[in-house]
């Protein structure tokens, strides 16, 4: 029976195998490249389709078939097997011709499909090209442009993009225009969906995942997801870290839009987890769920745990390591769901929290780069535009709030680096409302502050190198002051605070508003001393705002230790303290002297017993510079008291000393820096450029 089964396919004893046949068999077994790459003798990436076939524009030809003789031996009949054997024993030219004929057949099939598609598109365009229809279309478009009507973008659905999430296309994009023109044109919309959109790279369903793991388990494998869930802490720790996030980090920067709903989902998640059943399921779209929640939600949970851990009372090393583990888990969830191609609002909130956590770990530069990616993903979802009326009202509000949080984070980081902000779209209706309404909440006050901060940065970028216009600076200063006047009572006076949350909101708003005001007026400090009363007013405003910034950070530090770990707040306090020290305000202003002494004492206490690598170079350099500046001021005061001499003549707009004073009376930080702006010296101290301890 066994011989009967094998005989029709191939009988090794029917004819001798020559050396050429053995060589061909050995090559067939070792073949790994696709057919086109093997024939061209070019590099193959061994994907389906491979990168070479994609770049050459023929992915449909990328096949990984065994040599033709083996296929015929397995599936052909007796007659076909004999024909195949004859072909294999023929000259090599015959084998090559057979391959060429097969590829030509594939090419003919592909060409026919393209011709059919082009024919359908041509027929559609032909109907549109008739005089009446074409005239109507052109008249409509001309009317819209002529009247200045606002064109609307489109939110594509799964049928258009082949994906399962919404993708936003701008109103001026070619696909959006094509879809608009195809409305009411028979099957034109279907043709455009099937042909035009994939041409613009919108068919993300077939995109190759860019973060494949070449060494471990596949990212979507049940074992890998099970290992990921095993890292989740116990229920008590999980709730504790979340409580730290909700009561501290979320109050300062509310990245999770609906925190109450998220907490309810967390409770349900933990209840299901107690059943010890992972409950790993995949729906019809291939999305994995664990304990009733998808991996988009799970990634956001890990991000919240990482942020909450930073606010916790754990020891420094334990806090850093645990937070870093949760950051890796949150990003691993993003990798598993292929967030670059299939992002959701959950993923955007995840990235916002990760950006905050990373910046608090003294990696604000990485957070800046990550923010750029977050902005692009949010724009691809259309979060920067008002959602259409077909979207549920509560969803519209949530989408808009997510974009506001992106603008919020952009403002904090852009001002730190004095870079042009990457966010260019602020929802106009909400912007105008915020600039006019009263009794602003903390979130609305911060959003208004972010709007003005970004406006200041854009104005500075557009007028690079130009002399600051005093009237424009005064206008911005008044707008910044107006934020407090229009805010809730607890944001205007700390005596009106009724809870810990109110106090957090008061001090954090004061911190950022004062720093933005100081940043606005800072260019005036580098100007030579002038009799212009407006310039002197702006200089005093800058000094007062720097002082308020330090006081606000000290107020935050008394409420929560998280103020020490928040890089945005700590950077503002450090840079403001250094500027005040370099300006010599501690020697003449008792309030500044008291705040600087308190700030230095707290920072020295924090750094005691820690290595430089643990503290961070910028912080260590800043604190030592402040200490030396205070020592210099104390020695100068003693000399003035003993000798009765007045030293320290203000020149060039900030702090220089008369030529009659000795070199020893000049702070070591200021020697050889005549003509240098205070902000340049601050950045030199913070980042170590040209600075030696």
From TrEMBL:
It comes from the Eukaryota. Residues 654-675 are annotated as: Disordered. CDD domains: fungal_TF_MHR (cd12148), GAL4 (cd00067). The keyword Nucleus applies. Keywords: Metal-binding, Nucleus. The keyword Signal does not apply. GO terms for biological process: DNA-templated transcription. Pfam families: Fungal_trans, Zn_clus. Transmembrane segments: none annotated. One of its GO terms (molecular function) is zinc ion binding. Residues 33-64 form the Zn(2)-C6 fungal-type domain. Residues 656-665 have a biased composition (Polar residues). InterPro entries: UbiX-like (IPR004507), XnlR_reg_dom (IPR007219), Zn2-C6_fun-type_DNA-bd_sf (IPR036864), Zn2Cys6_DnaBD (IPR001138). This is Zn(2)-C6 fungal-type domain-containing protein. It comes from Lophiotrema nucula.
